[in-house]
Amino acid sequence: MSRWKRLGFGIAALAALASAAAAPARAAHEQLTIGISQFPSNFNPLINSMVAKAYVLGLVLRPFTTYDPSWKLVCMLCTELPTVENGKAVAETTSDGKKGVAITYTIRPEAKWGDGTPISTDDVLFTWQVGKDPQSGVNNGKAFRDITAIDVKDAHTFTMHVNKFTFDYNAINDFELVPAHLDKAAFADPASYKNRSLYETDTTNPGLWNGPYRITQVERGQFIVFEPNPMWWGQKPFFRRIVVKAIEATPALEANLLSGGVDMIPGEIGMTLDAGLAFESRHAPGFTVTYKPGLSFEQISPNFDNPILADKRVRQALLYGIDRAGTAQQIFQGKQQPADTMVNPLDWCYDPNVRKYPYDPAKAAQLLDDAGWKKGADGQRHNADGKPLNLELMTTAGNRNREVTEIVVQQAWQRLGANVTLRNQPARTFFGETVLKHAYPDFALFAWFSAPENVPREILNSEMIPTQANNFGGENSNGYKNPEMDKLLDAIEVELDRTKRAELWNKFQAMFAEDLPMLPLWFRSDPFILPDWLKGVVPTGHQYPSTLWIETWRAEG
Amino acid sequence: MTRRIALRLVQAALVLLVLSFVVYALMGLMPGDPIELMAAGSPTMTAEDVARLKALYGIDKPLVGRYLHWLGGVLTGELGYSRLTGLTVLRTLAEPLGNTLALMVASLACALLLALPLGIAAALRERRALDHALNLAAFAAISLPVFWLGLLLIIAFAVTLGWLPASGVTTVGGGGLLDRLRHLALPVAALALAGFGHYLRYMRASMIEAMRADWIRTARAKGLSLLGAALRHALRNALIPVVTILALDLGTLFSGVVVTETVFAYPGMGKLIFDSVMGNDYNLALAALMLATATTLLGSILADLAYAALDPRLRFR
């Protein structure tokens, strides 16, 4: 064989090797491995809400309605969104004389469970029965008990009678169906349903799932395997197999990403913002890191029982004293957007003309002077009685982003003449004890989770202040009381006209920005670390995860 | 000896009973509430829902009543359900228990196989080059934080070389013995290296002491080689303190190691116990902690038996 022939064979062999090497790469893209930081504690969609579970169930279940990535309410399991305009939502008076609504939904006729059983109104009735039973362990049972009756028209159409008529009357996002033909037996004793449901005892039963994928293997604490659901009625999903791996430690999650153990880390339940930024600066080639600002509203809650903080001028001064834009730029590389109020700028009801609090130490000093807190020769502010302006700021220990923010705030307020001490607690103690019983003396830094156009009634209404008398029920943990705010929140909830509601939302934002029931910091951003070949992933920024649109995800290149 | 063992078993049962109450009470006294934490992350949960769930899971009832109810169940063989997983406690425990046993037995075996011979070698070459080198290695192993060592191993063998998986117990779709061993390699290496230093130091110290005894000098005077005297006469005596440490370490066979399990995303008992305690999952936490306590107590009884085997004088006490 001549030298040239040998060279030719060599090149051909190399080409063959290269194509053989490329083939597994293509094959590898038929499987998508997602790394998340927590393993779902259970799989029943009605019991025990947690982000990891919502993310995983997005692959296998379809809710009736949900908010899409543009935060618009859409139908998933129903044929058409019932509205007053299309006559499928009709006002009615409840038996106790309240204003209610009758809403008619039709289930998509082609919708089936994974075992081929059509999804029907039997499932609707069974789900309602489980949801309203106080023994069943459902989280948001009140939403189910607000439904006073369900009239079945046929196998696919039903009318739901609800004892209140709020603007989001047609959003039944959490009414996640469970299959009557499989799970009814487990509900014979409602108190043990949470343990006996097939979702826990037979998780790989195909009849439990109605989404593009179904669960085929569960290794608790490790991974869950998903394969396409042959009964899925929508667009065929791209990946032949999806694996969701739970890896709690961020360094281990990152190592898995770099070693090929996982392909992507979602923002919903993956890395924190600082870890995402660090990853991007070190390893960006081959990955795209996108940041989606969401509905986690980071804020500082003042304790309104404290007379110093009950003075609006002090709250306003302290907010003027924090350089939120500069901090967001320096610490979070501009990925986290400063907030004006609780209403996210991505929400349709956001008012861009709402009062802003740019960094203005001179104005802050003036407001503190006006409130009677004068600066002494030592730089410390005192009131007329000579009492120093001492403030304590608390947050969750171990949350790096919050701890860094806390130090920035401490330094900013100390520059204004306040003496600020920091006291942090583990999350369980901080939320379950200190915040719940508003046991923080001055300020607590934490986040409120919300939904698109969510009325913060539980958080701001004066009836929702947790006290010993109401067994610490309610989320208004800073003790904020404003009768005008109470009226406004009630009015927004029942205003169906979008234009009129927009006006009310503007009023709400103006009142919030003026009164400052909380000092707004920013809306948290979550980093999505995706391989360059993965297309179609659209982060939502709200609590309904991107996996609800898994059928649009694909590998390219 | 039999009477002594029986007495130890009765003592162990009493310790378990007291500890079960102490653990139950401590969990109950922990500030905070997991249902409230759940509500804080869920905008749709109302105060009414929070109160209903607390009642459903019995979190609102007095502590002593709950404890007696739990104890009654345990005495009739009913460990109940885990609040966090919704599965029976036994089913929830089974897999992490198996994983932890595999991890801890393998790492303990590796650590001992390395540490005991090298500890003897260091003792026999006291204050010489080999002794200094082994001491340095032992101190380095003791000083390295396990999480850092784990991360180094992951970067070297999973990320850079790509030889071993970075985390988990099995490959998706795999699961044979070889696959499990590949997944065990890095966590076992991290734990074995951490344990190696301790055992080497204990073995070295007790061997040096045993080698200074009169009967060893006599054995050497009668012409026995240094190694022969060490292995035939000193080793049994030198092993007694090492066995004590080993017996105490038996408890970790069931309780696991949270840090290693977290770094390698290895679902074992350490993480399970931590999550169950933090989540107020009394049934699961109690069962797991009692298992760990029982193993430690059993280890102590086994140590007694081992002493008797190693030192004939103890059999007749």
Describe this structure in words.
The complex is a heterodimer of chains A (557) and B (317). Chain A contains 18 helices and 20 strands. Chain A is an alpha+beta fold. Among the domains of chain A are: 120 residues, Dipeptide-binding Protein, Domain 1 (Dipeptide-binding Protein, domain 1); 230 residues, Dipeptide-binding Protein, domain 3. In chain A, the strands form 6 sheets. In chain A, strands 12-18-11-17-15-16 form a 6-stranded mixed beta sheet. In chain A, helix 11 packs antiparallel against helix 13 and helix 17 packs antiparallel against helix 18. Chain B is mainly α and 317 residues long. Chain B folds into 2 domains: 74 residues, no CATH class; 224 residues, MetI-like fold. Chain B is globular. The model of chain B has no long low-confidence stretch (mean pLDDT 85).
Question: Can you lay out the helices and strands and say which pair or pack?
Answer:
The complex is a heterodimer of chains A (557) and B (317).
Chain A: H1 3-28, E1 31-36, H2 51-57, E2 65-67, E3 73-75, E4 89-93, E5 99-106, H3 121-132, H4 141-145, E6 147-152, E7 157-162, H5 180-183, H6 193-196, H7 198-201, E8 213-219, E9 223-228, E10 241-246, H8 250-259, H9 273-283, E11 287-302, H10 307-310, H11 312-320, H12 324-332, E12 337-338, H13 361-370, E13 374-375, E14 381-382, E15 390-396, H14 400-416, E16 419-425, H15 427-435, E17 443-449, H16 457-460, H17 483-494, H18 498-515, E18 519-531, E19 534-535, E20 554-555
Parallel strand pairs in A: 1-10, 15-16, 15-17
Antiparallel strand pairs in A: 2-3, 4-5, 5-7, 6-7, 8-9, 9-10, 11-17, 11-18, 12-18, 13-14, 19-20
Helix pairs in contact in A: 11-13, 17-18
Chain B: H1 2-29, H2 34-40, H3 47-56, H4 63-75, H5 89-124, H6 129-143, H7 146-160, H8 177-211, H9 214-221, H10 226-249, H11 252-255, H12 258-263, H13 269-278, H14 282-310, H15 312-315
Helix pairs in contact in B: 1-14, 5-6, 5-8, 6-8, 7-8, 8-10, 9-10, 10-14, 13-14
